[in-house]
Amino acid sequence: xQLLTVQKEVLDILKEVELGESQEDKFWxxxxxxxxxxxLTYGDVQVLQGSKGALLECDNFAVTKNGLKSIxxxxxxRVCTLPSLSIDIRLVLxxxxxxxxxxxxxxxxxxxxxxxxxxxxxxxxxxxxxxFSAIKLLRTFPSDKVLLSVGGDFxxxxxxxxxxxxxxxxxxxxxxxxxxxxALIGSGRNFVLTSEDGSTVLWECGSGQVVSTFLRIxxxxxxxxxxxxxxxxxxxxxxxxxxxxxxxxxxxxxxxxGYQSGIIQEFRIASxxxxxxxxxxxxxxxxxxxxxxxxxxxxYSDGTIVVWDIDAQTPMHKxxxxxxxxxxxxxxxxxxxxxxxxxPELLLTMDLESYxxxxxxxxxxxxxxxxxxxxxxxxxxxxxxxxxxx
Length: 390
Hints:
It contains 1 helix and 35 strands. The chain is mainly beta. The protein has 2 domains: 3-81, no CATH class; 85-389, YVTN repeat-like/Quinoprotein amine dehydrogenase (Methylamine Dehydrogenase, Chain H, 7 Propeller), CATH 2.130.10. Strands 5-6-7-32-31-30-29 form a 7-stranded mixed sheet, with no helix packed on it. The two termini are 24 Å apart. This is Anaphase-promoting complex subunit 4 WD40 domain-containing protein.
């Protein structure tokens, strides 16, 4: 696969020329093959002031503007989207964004929680030592009033989204090994998490209790690496519901759990049961998202993306990107666009109808993605050094 890197300041350079603040400027582009990353093709793009905006000229690449915040670069023949906002924050491991996109919550390596106003780019609140070790995952509830945090200390905590209090509203303790992923069900009264011990645990927030533990029947110890909750077309019968007093919005929900072995297993949440639906690949399942009731998208440790047809249990599309790195983060923007990372400096998009691939660029050189989140049309990318909105 051809890997593409673009200078961070591209959008600023384009704006300065178009606004007449400078007559010309330039930015650099570099490409390399994933099979031979030591050899680069490098190009300087001259940005000139034209009668209808900036003109782009380059000897080694064809570069054209593609709207207000994107450029087309060939090779590799990708539309590259530039960030609309960037905040420099160090030691970021997790990030969450409220639906208004105004409040940004950050979890750090030291276990602190920080809240930022995205318009002013200023920190508004901080909870120090929210966890005893690094904060691994953050989730905002649909109400935009509650934040869930997961730490390397194997604890899950609930916070007021304003971070006005130094103490959590509730703390959940149960896991003996690292928590790998978490997913809210409906409004969030129930949630599920996966763990390296092979378990997927269903929690109820009101009581703070474990409702059920799901283990794959044929291998209890296969590390569970990721989970996604989806609606099903066939809600279960009320007679099959287990622990109904602790279940909320679960009757029509299933979850798909991805394992180290390469298996994705479906479970019926309300009946606490494993179904017959299973997807098998040759490498570990490292990320999962659902596009709709019929489509599941999986990322694997060998850099492969597979779009699965749930009903047929067969691949609709399969594509290998950079095989040297796993697919570690994925999200879906407005149900049609998949956003994912595939190793350092490779942040990609895929249209789930045409399967055309694009790229998000304009981050600090040699960036390493920690988390990707989406709220409607906004995609938030957290690296160890910055947070950018696309």
